[in-house]
Structures are given as C-alpha cells and as structure tokens.
Write a structure and sequence with these properties.
heterodimer, A: about 250 residues, mainly alpha, 2 domains, two-stranded parallel ribbon, 12 helices, about 75% helix, about 0% strand, B: about 100 residues, flat
C-alpha cells in the first residue's frame, strides 16, 4: 500500500523521519516548559494544573499570558480574548500548513494534527521540500509534545534541576533553529531576503518605538508577518509548481 | 483544583485549539489565487523573522553580549546551511562560553 502510494506521487510520510525531526524541537521545549512549570508553581498553582495546561494548550506565549491572568484572577472572557489575540498567528500558520498537506490527509487527521500546530512544528513541516503526509506529522508532533509535558512536570516538581548558566544558554536554542530555517533560502531568493528583513525590522519597531510598543505580542506577530509576506507576494509571486515554503 | 481554575483551563485549551483547527479543516482544497499562494509561501519566513527579532537579543540570562555571540554563531552556521540541531546547539555553546568568560573578567 505504502509503496504504491509513494510511487504515485512523492511526498514525505515517514513516522520515523517525523520523530527524528521533532527531537531538536523537543529539546528546545524542555527548557521553555521547565520555566513555565516553575513559574506556575511559584505563583501558587498546583503541579497538576501546570502539567494539564501544557498538555492541553501546547503553546508558549499563550500559556505564559494565561498564567499572569490566572494569578490576577482574571475573568473568563478576558482569558478567551487574550488567548485569541496571542494565538491568532496559528490561524495564519494553519492556512499555510493546509496547503502543505498531501491529499491523503483526511479531515479526522486534520482535527488531530491541528492540536500540534506550534510555531516550531509548523516551521519544520513548512521547510520540507515535498508535501507532507499524516504519519510524518504525527511523528513530528510526538517528541515535542512529550518534551513540553515533561519539561513542565520537571520545572513544576523540582525548583531547579539545571544550573542557571545552562538554562540561560538553552534560552537561545529555539531562535538558533529559526535562523537555520530562514537564513539558507535568503541566499537564493531576494524576495525571501526582503520578507525576512521587513518582518524583523517591523518587529523591532513594535518593540522599541514608544506607543507602538504597547501593541500586544500576538498582534505584533500578525501585523509584521502579514505586511512582510504581502510585500514578498507583490515583489515576486511564486510559480505554479512551488508549494508552501521550500 | 477549584472550579475557577478548571474552567479557565478549558477556556485556554478550547480557544487555542479552535484557532488552530478551523483553518486546517476549512482550507482543504489547494488555493489557486496567485497572490494568496505567494503570500502563504512567504508567511513562514515572515513569522519566524518576526519572532526571532528582537526577541533573540534578550533570550539569554547573561544580557545582550552573550545573546549577540549566540546570534553571530547561529548566523554563520545557518549561512553555511548546517542542520537545525547543529545551529541551535552551537548557538547555546557560544552563549555558555561568552557568559563564562564575562564572569572571569
């Protein structure tokens, strides 16, 4: 079956490759979720709730924002709105990812995979040359999910397993991964270079310029990404054969 | 756990899931519009660049200098198209070494 399918059309659908590609993401998640677990328990939440949040949300910015609201005793509507704004970027990523799936990915698969569409998993899936299948996606989500839950548990249970110097150094791991994804294509495409520089420049403006820096993180990501990607689409529309990011 | 915490947990998980799920289920056909296709092609790079800068400058515990050292190493290795893990771990190494040197000074 598998061999026949792959003969018909080439796409990436190996669970094993997914697991392998997910390992660096899982390592990066360990340190972030460790911090989340520590913060949650330090703020007075039970260990079980910290782990439950990580296992049902699987998102960093949203969870940290959720924590500060829980500590402040914020309302339900406020929580919903905060999560919506901070996580709206996932809608953008899901639209992009929907175009990357091989036609064999069913609605049921999409319902399950959607849960694991994090920034990093999206980035690695988008970075594949061919379309991706469900087995690859399940493999890719597996290790990061485990890492996210385990890191939260460790952080919540133990106050500090890793020495401060090591945790400090691990903080840059995720960004190192991001750079490894978007720097290489910049060498071959001026449009990608323009998109990256525009997005980074706008993002800096929204961080350092007074008034602009009051816009919440979730909105900043959406505004910068939409403007930069639209610019890329105007400068150099991609050809027919090209799928999502290569 | 209190009722309040459990309900908030449900709100967080529910909203986050719906945002991710709806577009993935709604957009099942390939989009034909050239502009939208191109836009979606560039989106991953735009999102990643937005999230990396300027956040990377404050990603380490040791201040801007160790972060810059990590960024420099990551940029160099990424430029030479090294793998994700290599780039990420070498950046961590650069940060660790820089912070260690700075403590000696």
């Amino acid at each position: 079956m598998q061999a026949e399918q792959e003969k018909e059309e080439k796409y990436i659908n190996s669970f094993k490759k997914g697991i392998k590609d997910g390992v660096p993401i899982a390592l990066g998640y360990l340190s972030v979720s460790f911090t989340f677990g520590m913060m949650a328990v330090a703020g007075g939440l039970p260990v079980s709730l910290a782990v439950a949040i990580s296992m049902t949300n699987l998102t960093s910015a949203g969870q940290f924002a959720g924590l500060s609201l829980l500590f402040a005793g914020g309302g339900y509507f406020e929580m919903a709105l905060t999560q919506l704004v901070i996580n709206l970027r996932y809608a953008l990523m899901s639209v992009s990812l929907s175009q990357k799936f091989h036609k064999s990915v069913t609605v049921l698969d999409r319902l399950l995979i959607a849960f694991g569409n994090t920034d990093e998993i999206f980035a690695v899936a988008s970075g594949q040359k061919e379309e991706v299948g469900k087995k690859y996606m399940y493999g890719l989500i597996f290790m990061p999910y485990l890492g996210w839950a385990l890191g939260t548990l460790l952080g919540a249970a133990a106050s500090a397993v890793l020495p401060e110097t090591v945790r400090s150094a691990l903080g840059i791991a995720i960004y190192g991964m991001f750079l490894a994804i978007f720097i290489p294509p910049m060498k071959h495409s001026r449009a990608v270079t323009a998109v990256v520089l525009t997005a980074a420049g706008l993002s800096c403006l929204f961080t350092y310029v007074p008034v602009l820096n009051r816009v919440s993180t979730g909105f900043v990501i959406i505004i910068c990404a939409v403007v930069a990607a639209a610019l890329g689409a105007v400068i150099k529309p991609v050809k027919e054969e090209q799928g999502a990011a290569q | 756990m209190t009722r309040y915490l459990l309900l908030q947990l449900a709100v967080m998980a529910g909203v986050t899931y719906l945002i991710r799920m709806l577009p993935l289920v709604i957009f099942r056909k390939k989009i034909e519009n050239a502009f939208i296709k191109s836009f979606l092609y560039y989106i991953p790079y735009a999102v990643l660049a937005t999230m990396t800068f300027p956040a990377i400058f404050s990603a380490t515990g040791g201040g801007i200098w160790s972060a810059l050292a990590g960024l420099l190493v990551a940029l160099l290795l990424a430029f030479f198209e090294k793998g994700l893990v290599t780039v990420a771990l070498c950046a961590c190494g650069a940060v660790f070494i820089t912070e260690w040197i700075m403590q000696l000074l």
